[in-house]
Amino acid sequence: MVVAAGVLLGFQVWRDAYPPAVGAATGGLLGCASAFFFCALQELVANLRVYVAGIVVFCAAAISALAYLLMGALPADVQVWLVAFVCFPLVTAFCVAARKVGPAFRHPMFQAAPSSGGDKILRAAIDLWRPLLCVAFSALLIGIIRADTIIDGGALNGVNDSGMLGLLLASIVLLGCWRMIYTRTLLSKLQLLIFPLIATSFLLLPFLTGQSRGLFVSIAFTVFSITSSLMVVTCARTARMYALPPVLVFGAFSGVVYLFLACGALLSYSFGGLREATSLWLFAIALVAIYVLSMALTLGRRLTDGVRRTKAARDVARASAKTNAFSNSSVLLGAVANRVGEARGDARHAGDAALRGEEYARQHMADDAKNESGGAASRTKGAVAPRMHGDADRRAPREPSDPSSGVVGLERKCAGVAKHYGLTARETEVMTLLAHGRDVAFIADELTLSKNTVRTHAKGVFSKMGVHSKQELIDVVYLFEE
């Protein structure tokens, strides 16, 4: 999609200075460079702390906006050569360097997956779908504005310059306010705040003319740039939280956003812009947008909680089945070995077989307990099977270890503890991370809260659960029976 947009942009911008094929090819190179840069940036940001990641994203956005504006001031024939022989090679070199040094800075949360791939994608979608709707409808509005400006006789370069100025201004604002945003506001909640702006924009857009319209367009581009920059940070944090490929999360999110942007431009072209006689279509779109966003804000939490409860029940059933399978296989192993020993007329071997089968069962149950308490990975040695043929020792086959079973069991216990003690959603998140052994600084970074806010939630958790330390909390979670 980015490459196609680059081809169209190159065809429109450089068609007067060069043949259409040259302009389209140059635009394609620009689109490829942008796509490579976004992928490398997303991989880098996902492995940084949230606060540092925000600074990197906003600085990169400001630099890209300045580079575009400076390039726009050059003659068209110079722009083509600059894109082909400077911008594209530099971005390619940056991506290659990021690939080489990336593993050395890889965040430890990418090392262990909390659950299977489908479950992780579902949880990420649950966290992102409401912010995605808000950003997507703001992109729809931007697409309508861009197309209408061109229909009214505005130049494409002027529209792009307005967008880059908005991005530069948004980057400066975010850099100045990032400390306050990081410590006091959730990124997802901040994106949801644009809902009233979208509703007001759809309502006022057909009636604005002259300077008021120009001011409105500038504000709209700035707000969209702010949400787009925060989108990068949010996608990176979500990818890290669920151990998903950062490019996958950002690609899916941005793909939907830019699809809405293209749909807005297509609608505006189809209906001839925002003329007074034909602007009723905009009110229809505004009604649909406001309705969908209202449903997302009012019913979204209930739907999300319902999906999470269904998912938790499925995890409980899967974990129980796995535990039963371990126990049954252990008992069956002892029984079979006992029968073999009896059949050979060797009572000593039979008793030894039964004893080792029981030991095998106890070891598997110990493994499950260690996994559910979030402890270190089990290093229990495989039980030794009875000597059935002479003095040769044989090892009993073990069930292949599942790295996700321990985290799933711990999350299941935390969900039960939260329900039992009446914890709020935020207290549940803090309690779960505490049960994983995380400290206040880590929790503040993961939940984008201040340390004082985390301590306040932790005190509430301790008070409701009747514990006085993190170790007591872990003990309560470990001993909790559903």
Overview of this structure, please?
By secondary structure, this protein is mainly alpha-helical. The chain is 78% helix and 1% strand. The protein folds into 3 domains: 2-106 and 118-278, no CATH class; 313-395, no CATH class; 407-479, Arc Repressor Mutant, subunit A, CATH 1.10.10.10. A two-stranded antiparallel ribbon has the order 1-2. β1 and β2 (394-395) form a beta hairpin. α6 packs across α9 and α9 packs antiparallel against α10 (246-270). The longest helix is centred in the middle third of the chain and has 64 residues, at 280-343. It is globular, with a radius of gyration of 29 Å. One of its GO terms (biological process) is regulation of DNA-templated transcription. Pfam families: GerE. Keywords: DNA-binding, Membrane, Transcription, Transcription regulation, Transmembrane, Transmembrane helix.
